[in-house]
Design brief:
heterodimer; A: alpha+beta; Alpha-Beta Plaits; four-stranded antiparallel β-sheet; 32% helix; B: alpha/beta; six-stranded parallel β-sheet; 22 helices
Chain lengths: 92, 569
């Protein structure tokens, strides 16, 4: 199964990480890898996701994530982009 | 971006230090909260200690679930967040069903929970539950307030989030030590809701092009219209455009049933003309609705010939279940104001839909001498008229209310749509009557749902809240029985409630006036007595246990496959 890669920029409020990952799983995606970092109030995570079935669309998931008060931006990354490279780019 | 209004009060007007609990009460006052529904307990006691110092009225319910349901109804009617208050542990978990109800129906609510003191959090302390974590999937937002000086801004933020955009519940968890600690209060400012982006001009242009080109357009009216307080605007647009309309369960009341464009409710127990029109239309103009499965039936066969213009405040709903050819995201009123709804040549379509409507009238000529609930509900709603407000439980009676009552506005029809929570009716009616004391508020309940929050008769009695209860008693869990009859080969499993208590005696024991009827000729007198009662009253109405709700779209089927009552029954 092809993994989908997304990046989420969020405010590091209490519960933000749990809340965000909860939406990802509840909307039908399994987290296969994750990297996260924060700088004060700002956090960023990159996730490699496996959709539970073919009806689960990443663009829909991103809109669900953007409803969260703590989420500031989401990006659907190229399927082929390695997670480490994405994180490096995010830091840069 | 959050806009800020000037301070509502200043530190100079208050003592130099305030406890966290006092700041809760101060802030509720400053935010203009008139009414809070709650139940005290250990971890929220400092707030209860401070409550008498404020002006906010507290309604003591007899179960926290009822506090959440009452706050939900208050929020649906006023558009301002209803507030419920509970202690930690079981008090907080008892709110959960009500919070979920508000989430699924997009109702503004602020739930305030006590929590054990911070040093005890995470130790499995007495009455400690992680209510913050437990409610994450069913809140629009939540927060644990860690410092007393943060309480005013946290509560202001909670109200702004609950009421802004697509409304929803916000949970504020208050550790007991934060309630007890003193601090120098900061100025209290009320945040206004986030500004919504203007609808895209490209989407508006595409919507106008689709509407002008459509031969068979149809409005699909959802609960978002009521949340945006846009009913009057929608009525005017329907009148001017001549485009026919259908409604979801939550959209009932935007157009009254006698409106010439109104074809009724769609979905599993929808009106036949409404479901037929959806299947035949070539354009659905969806206003504040989300293609719920109970409304669409088999999604792949829903409105099979239609393009979609979808107007909603929540971008996540656009294209979630059905592709939108024009996806207009923004406040519904702003979007409606921006779009020209001028239709093309649709006379043949409006003639056809009028004929469909005329050829499928509701029937009330039920055989026998027993009370036919649909007829009684229709008569009751028409007798009460514009002031009619109903809070229902869930089940057959809920569908009969939706099918047969006349609602002058969507806020008059309080029903648990998304969650389908039995027990909603009585506490929601309490919240509704406190929100709108001048309206005639009815709790229309089944015998199953009524017993889920029957203890709230005590709340009616204590505050002498003149809610009228119409209890439709078929001594069954009727909708489950109906499904067992139709889809489980008549294997009636655990639906019999024939050992119900004597509800008149129960009501009397709570100090509530009550009476019972079981024959058709008693209906008019019972309606008179309910309408004329000045205090709370209960009418116990015995109905046929084998009566079913028709039409019915079988689960998983297309809305084109409506089952009707057999002629031999």
């Amino acid at each position: 199964m092809t993994l989908e890669h997304i990046r989420i920029e969020f405010r590091c409020a209490e519960g933000a990480l749990r809340r965000t990952l909860g939406v990802v799983e509840a909307r039908g995606f399994s987290v296969r890898s994750m990297q996260m970092g924060s700088d004060g109030d700002a956090g960023v995570m990159t996730l490699a996701l496996a959709p539970l079935d073919s009806t689960r669309k990443v663009e829909r998931l991103l809109r669900q994530l953007e409803r969260l008060q703590d989420v500031q931006a989401t990006i659907h990354l190229s399927n082929a982009t390695p997670v480490a490279e994405v994180i490096h780019a995010a830091r840069a | 971006m959050n806009a800020m209004t000037p301070p509502l009060s200043s530190p100079e007007s208050q003592p130099a230090t305030r406890t966290g609990a006092q700041l809760v009460v101060d802030t509720l006052d400053a935010l203009g909260v008139e009414c809070v529904f709650g139940y005290p307990g250990g971890a929220i006691m400092p707030v209860y200690d401070a409550l008498p110092q404020g002006t906010t009225r507290h309604i003591l319910v007899r179960h926290e679930q009822a506090a959440a349901f009452a706050a939900d109804a208050y929020g649906r009617i006023t558009g301002r967040a209803g507030v419920c208050l509970a202690t930690s542990g079981p008090g907080a978990t008892n709110l959960i069903t009500g919070i979920a109800n508000a989430y699924l129906d997009s109702v503004p609510m602020v739930a305030i929970t006590g929590q054990v003191a911070q040093p005890l959090m995470g130790t499995d302390a007495f009455q400690e539950t992680d209510i913050f974590g437990m409610t994450m999937p069913i809140v629009k937002h939540s927060m644990i307030v860690r410092r007393p000086e943060d309480i005013p801004s946290a509560l202001a933020e909670a109200f702004a989030i609950a009421e802004g955009g697509r409304p929803g519940p916000v949970l504020v968890d208050l550790p007991k030590d934060v309630q007890q600690a003193s601090c120098e209060p900061a100025p209290m400012r009320r945040k206004t809701a986030d500004l919504l982006p203007a609808p895209s001009s490209d989407a508006i242009a595409e919507a106008e092009r689709l509407i002008a080109a459509a031969k068979r357009p149809l409005f699909y009216l959802g609960g978002g219209i009521a949340r945006a307080n846009a009913s009057e605007m929608v009525r005017r647009i329907v009148d001017e455009s001549g485009i026919p309309a259908v409604a979801t369960l939550q959209g009932l009341g935007v157009l009254p049933p006698e409106h010439p464009a109104m074809l009724g409710m769609i979905g599993m127990h929808g009106h036949r003309p409404a479901n037929m029109a959806v299947q035949e239309c070539d354009l659905l103009i969806v206003l504040g609705a989300r293609f719920d499965d109970r409304a669409t039936g088999k999604l792949a066969e829903f409105a099979p010939h239609a393009s979609v213009v979808h107007i909603d405040v929540d971008a996540a709903e656009l294209g979630k279940l059905r592709f939108a050819h024009a996806a207009v995201c923004g406040n519904i009123k702003s979007s409606l104001a921006a779009i020209d709804f001028a239709a093309g040549e649709i006379d043949a379509w409006t003639t056809e839909t009028a004929e469909i409507r005329a050829s499928h009238p509701q029937r009330y000529d039920a055989p026998g001498n027993g009370i036919y609930a649909p007829a009684m509900l229709k008569t009751l709603s028409e007798r009460v008229g514009e002031d009619f407000v109903v809070a229902c439980d869930v089940g057959q009676h809920q569908m009969w209310v939706a099918q047969h009552c006349r609602f002058a506005r969507p806020q008059a029809h309080l029903t648990s749509g998304g969650l389908g929570a039995m027990g909603f009716g009585l506490p929601a009616a309490i919240g509704a009557k406190l929100a709108e004391p001048d309206k005639e508020v009815f709790a229309i309940c089944g015998d199953g749902g009524f017993q889920m929050n029957i203890q709230e008769l005590a709340t009616l009695r204590r505050y002498q809240i003149p809610v009228k209860i119409l209890l439709l008693d078929n001594a069954m869990l009727g909708l489950v029985r109906q499904w067992q009859e139709l889809f489980f080969a008549g294997n009636y499993s655990e639906v019999d409630l024939s050992d119900n208590p004597d509800f008149v005696e129960v009501a009397n024991a709570f100090g509530i006036e009550a009476f019972g009827i079981e024959r058709r000729e008693e209906v008019d007198g019972a309606i008179d007595r309910l309408i004329n009662a000045r205090g709370p009253i209960l009418a116990h109405v015995r109905i046929d246990p084998e009566e079913n709700v028709w039409p019915l779209v079988p689960p998983g089927a297309s809305n084109a496959e409506m089952m009707e009552k057999r002629n031999d029954t």
